[in-house]
Design goal:
Shape: globular
Number of helices: 14
Order of helices and strands: EEEEHHHHHEEHHHHHHHHH
CATH class of one domain: Mainly Alpha
Structural class: alpha+beta
């Protein structure tokens, strides 16, 4: 999907006029994108700019969030340790929801393996200087995938079914990023996603927080989130639902960012 270098990353995107392989780097002031392979037309530049801004959530002022963190001695370290860390998104909604389905009830290592197999089998590819970059499969392609073939790639029968069902919903136009954006509120967006078999509240919230940057999504029951809440002394038992709701109520409109920072705190606590 992408290659992470020492101070930049390479990623292939499918724009209006075809695939373009980009290198994205940063300095103290801005992100910079340069084309490694393919052609970027003038009319695609705004599309690319919007994609990158959406991907890295660059337009959001995080200072109000840090003010809230500083009020809680258990989490105040995050305001400095993770300053500038933004909720890295998945701008392609079909990819976002597929990734959420793939990751249901399995560890991340195995989830990444499954996603790689899916992308290499059904996605487009761009070769550059000895490396291969894959595009996430289009919904119309995955909609035609055989359940048995997906099972042969170690997807469970249920996940294979859910992936093809969600692919058909996107391919038919029943679901779309633009369509969800036009719905009036978070609850209606959650319902639109959860109307598809295999999409529960966790999957819907994860998709909306990563793709539409819904700021009040909490993936209740997420194992990583619960572990972080235990580690930081927010709860003493994973079944303390009321305590969890009360904790998040102190961060109105910042719940998704708080979840993201709590996830980040699990990687290397020594950095905190």
């Amino acid at each position: 999907m992408l290659k992470v270098n020492r101070d930049s990353l390479n990623k292939v995107l499918l724009l209006k006029n075809g695939p373009v392989l980009l290198n994205i780097s940063a300095d103290a002031a801005q992100l910079k994108a340069s084309v490694l392979q393919g052609e970027l037309s003038a009319d695609e530049e705004p599309e690319l700019k919007k994609y990158i801004e959406d991907w890295f959530d660059t337009g959001l002022n995080l200072n109000p969030f840090y003010t809230l963190l500083n009020k809680d001695p258990r989490l105040a370290f995050m305001a400095e340790a993770y300053r500038g860390l933004r909720l890295v998104g998945i701008p392609d909604m079909f990819e976002a929801i597929c990734w959420a389905i793939i990751g249901q009830q399995i560890n991340l290592t195995f989830a990444y393996k499954l996603k790689r197999r899916l992308v290499e089998r059904y996605g487009g590819r761009v070769d550059f200087q000895g490396d291969t970059y894959y595009l996430f499969p289009e919904a119309a392609v995955l909609a035609e995938a055989a359940i048995e073939e997906l099972q042969g790639m170690q997807f469970s029968k249920s996940k294979a079914l859910y992936l093809t069902l969600i692919a058909r919903a996107f391919a038919s136009g029943q679901l779309s990023k633009q369509g969800l954006r036009q719905l009036p509120d978070l609850a209606s967006r959650q319902k639109a996603l959860m109307d598809i078999k295999g999409v529960g509240l966790w999957t819907a919230n994860y998709t909306l927080m990563k793709c539409l940057k819904e700021r009040s999504c909490i993936p209740f029951g997420d194992a990583g989130l619960l572990n972080a809440l235990l580690i930081h002394g927010i709860i003493t038992d994973k079944k303390q639902a009321l305590e969890i709701e009360g904790f998040f109520s102190a961060y109105p409109t910042w719940e998704s960012y708080l979840v993201f920072y709590l996830w980040r705190s699990l990687s290397k606590r020594s950095e905190a």
